[in-house]
Fold this protein.
Amino acid sequence: MNTHPTDLSEQSLARILHHAPDAICAKDVHGRYMSVNKAASEILGIPSDKMIGRTDGELDFPDAETVSELDRRVMSGETVEPHYFSFVVKGRLKYFQTDRACMDDDNGAVTGVVTVTRDVTQDHLETEKYRYIFENAPIGFWEEDFSEVKKSLDAWREKGVTDFHGFFMERPEELDRCIDLIRVINVNRACAEMNGVSDRELLLGTLERNFDKGYERVYVEELAALADGETSYEAECDFINDQRKKLHVLLKLNVLPGHENDLSHVLVSVIDLTEMKRLSTELSAAQMRYQSIVEEQREMIARIGPNGRTSFRNKAFERFFNHRDPYGELRFVALFPPSEVQRLEKMMTGLKPTAFTFTTVARNYDTNGQLVWQDWTVTAFYDRSGRLLSYQAVGADVTDKTMTQEALAASEARWRTIFDHAADLIATVNVEGRVLSVNDHEELRGLRWAGKRLEDVMVPENAANAMMHIHEVFTTGRPKKLEFRYVSSGGEVRFYGCNISPIYHHERVLTVLIIARNISEAKVYEKQTRAALMEGEEQERKRIAQELHDGLGQLFTAMKMNLQDLEQHMDGKGGQQVSEQFKYLEQQIGTAMNEVRNISRNLMPDVLWQFGLAPALEDLIRKWNALEGLKVQLQIVDIQGRFAPEMENTVYRILQELITNSVRHGKATDIFVQLIDHGDELLLMVEDNGNGFDPGTAFSGSGLRNIRSRAERFDGTMTIDSAVGADTVMTIAIPLTPELRA
Amino acid sequence: MIRVMIVDDHEMIRNGIGSLLRGEPNINVVETASNGKQAFEKCAFREVDVILMDMMMPEMNGVSATKAIKGEYPQIKVLVVTINDETRFIKEALLAGASGYLLKDSTRNEIIEAIEKVAENKQYFSPEIVDRISERFKEGKMLEEQSEPLLTRKETDVLRLIAMEFTNQEIAEDLNCAVRTVDTHRRNLIKKLKVRNVAGLVRYAIQAGLVND
């Protein structure tokens, strides 16, 4: 300190010190009070003469040990932080802050400590209050330190950046770096809850980028605002909490007062708007729903006064009747054609408090003059004395229903005979899938389908399938022929050949007529026939192969041996020419034998019926591998023992066909074949790298159909996985029953 | 003197071979049989040194008969005489214990040489058979010698995706194939890799380095 004694006399200085609002004390090197001012003795509540010469410990002051430690450190030349403590003064808790400095004499020797203690109760309470609010607010609060960000912002500003918004948009990496510089110092309870974490420490440090897509926008705006010297910013955005739940929030940012220059304390609040938003969305949805119900009401509703005129008409009513009575001047019954007026009039006047309602179907004409049928329910309202107050009329268009009934009734006689005596199942079904009429077919006897909807009388799978076809006919208006696969509730599969035809009335498809015939037996018969044919073919192959082998083959062998025998007996007696003739004959027989063997082997591979499927497939694959540019791999898994010969043969033929297809049509160069015994089924899988094909179109090819038929003979299935330009995977799965295992 | 039994289901062949051997001083055809079962039964009461055995016969084929005879009478030599030159048959015959393999269109001298060779405890193969066997060796690895299961390209893909916790549906979409095919691949993998469940597949995939764990 550099004081000028001339400016300020020692005495006046002492006076100032004595009357200063802060408590000022001087202690010697042993911690004994040497002098104290007025404020000190007031605050501590001890007369100054009682303090002089005594230490904090002796005076029983709060934090005496800490205080003497701090004094000691100051005297040894250290700089110490201010010391905060609380103390009850005149019955009230007060908070104090003490700063201290070392005293020395002219020689530089330490003589003691000067302490200046200030009452900071007001400040402290402010801080406490802030802390309390911060902690307990129902809003998520972050206290963040932007001071490093501020330094960067200042540095850029010095380099000439003025438009920070544009700057951050163009340089996302700088934005990212800036976000990383933000430090979370503190978070409150609501914030922890919103983030779904219990340990708040997890939220401190670097900021999580919890905002949803477009969070950059929020950060860019926020940082640009701070760079422009703004002290607050707010925006609505989506926020993803640690539980990955998406919240819609209002983000608010406020620089705390006193930290405007370094941005070291910025309060960020996030208010969860999700619930609010959800409620408002729901509310508007509900409103729209309600409105649409009112708007879309199909029934015609009117209120009719005792004079018979309509007093209220809904939209549907107006749509139908406005062209006839735009101003509601006519009586209700006058809105119907003359042939109906009298009848309706009579029914309405016939209403009384004991019989106050009736329902009737009435004819009418629509705006195009088209005949329609309407179902009307009229209800009369009376007061207590029985006086008529008003009527309510509710009408619905029942044209479709009535038309069908009419159409049916009109041709009833013609119909019924065919209908009831047909061997086929005949039914009419409307667009909803309701069975309007059905004949007395033996398969449906007792099931009472008439009047019910298909979905009520069929298992869902069948109903959905049937409705798909029915809708198609309603939409296209063209008849359709199909084979319907019906699964009975007992799981039995039946096949029906079906014709679905549209029945028109005035160019509209009113109903469809379905004629169905059970073709299950025919299907089974077809399958058996096909199996028998295949079986026959195989048997025939086998027979011919055997015949060739046993007959011709052995005959040739014997001929060759006999020839050799003969040559032996001749013993060179025939001379050179005869001996050459022998050689030539033997050669020819050898060629013939080979030929026979090849034919027989192609018809029925020896290996297959001698050793079974696995060795036969290995041989088959080996032969294919002999082709240039083709690699066929085979993996046989868990095949032990033999299977029924017919099945082995089937699998062998299927594989032959599959590989032929892959090579010939698919131009495959790499084929992988697997034969796996899964216990419950035998699986043959062929994968190739060929051109692929569209299974939808290629299936008509006789090759694939043939394979499928072969597999079906053993209740097997074929799955094709291919597309033009893609690899092909063909899977044949044959259920392994005990009979199929040899 | 070598005692020979001829086993063939065709009388013509039995007679043919019989007459070829008739003049041979060293060889004596002591018995014939028309199938494997008969041959085996006749060994019980007829002492023979060499059996000329056909392959494809009713009742009991040549391979089964060879197995049975070598099991009961190991000193008897079996020489397969067949029209079948496929490696599969050669292999099966040798595994059953045959000492030689002769094609039926062999010359008389070859037949005699073969009988003498096997009687001396040596082996004999028709030249065509020797060719066939060496061809197979040149082909390198025999198919049946695979030890590691071979995985197809698709299977490797499926395995990798399973280990990455994809569902069948997701795998099907990723590999552009039917869910059913994916399921078949999955079943096959479990079977081929001899694991019990998907966890096993995942472990295999990681060990095989298909995925980074």
In short: The interface with chain A takes residues 9-10, 12-13, 15-17, 19-20, 23, 55-56, 61, 63, 83-84, 86-89, 92, 104-105, 107-108, 143-144, 146, 149-150, 152-154, 176-178, 180-181, 184, 187-188, 191-192 of chain B (CB under 8 Å).
